[in-house]
């Protein structure tokens, strides 16, 4: 579904992501793990067409994303929730959702998709008329996730969606992520907590210095010494648990 082949990218001529090949199948959650600065966010930005000069090949459902700007990538079926906040603070929750579906020309369909998103997050429904900038951090995160669903993407990339969320809200976001996969989407998830990531993912890839150094089923990685070391050694602190 989502396929990347020898993708390299970086900033100002400095290579950060170095020849990454990975794929995520429909219905699958793949966790992208790695220490701070490993290049996880850069990888997602590269896939989404945000980094000029990216080399290699990315496709969704057989459609090439090479050379497409972010809007084209979105329309081709790949959605992205960045690590940094991305709601429009001066627009209401509802207006933010409408922005997420801006490419839908069918107003009835847009209204239906917004209803579905609000069904998924009742907390957002209660706050539909509230300015997004006044939502709590966790509520803003939910809005970002909800907004990506309006174009009914085939594949979704989420960069630390649980960051700053209380455990109960994080659980809710993770349950939603599992639902996305259950609906047949491909999900690529960056998550700081290795434990949480392996609990929700089918497979995981570990990134170090811009390269994929380990790739296996979540179940095998949970039992893998090398992953256990990432938890318990000094490095584990950076990784979180
Ligand atoms: N906009 C930028 N301009 C220049 N260098 C950048 C930029 N963003 C990130 N970098 C550098 O690229 C490297 C990878 O950063 P990236 O944000 O992709 O890591 P990450 O794995 O997502 O880390 P974290 O877990 O802390 O979010 C780092 O050395 C970082 O300093
Ligand atoms: Mg990051």
What does this structure look like?
By secondary structure, this protein is α/β, with parallel strands linked by helices. It has one domain: Rossmann fold. Helix content is 39%, strand content 25%. It has 11 helices and 10 strands. The strands form 2 sheets. Strands 6-7-8-3-9-10 form a 6-stranded mixed β-sheet, sandwiched between helices. It has a 4-stranded antiparallel β-sheet with strand order 2-1-4-5. Helix 3 packs parallel to helix 6. The longest helix has 16 residues, at 167-182. 41% of the residues are buried. It binds adenosine-5'-triphosphate and magnesium ion. Adenosine-5'-triphosphate binds at residues 11, 16, 34, 36-42, 83.
Features of the shown structure:
241 residues, alpha/beta, Rossmann fold, 10 strands, globular, binds adenosine-5'-triphosphate, binds magnesium ion
Layout of strands and helices, then pairs:
Layout: E1 2-11, E2 14-24, E3 29-33, H1 40-47, E4 55-60, E5 63-64, H2 70-75, E6 78-81, H3 93-100, H4 107-120, H5 122-126, H6 137-148, E7 155-159, H7 167-182, E8 186-190, H8 194-200, E9 203-208, E10 211-217, H9 218-222, H10 225-232, H11 234-239
Parallel strand pairs: 3-8, 3-9, 6-7, 7-8
Antiparallel strand pairs: 1-2, 1-4, 4-5, 9-10
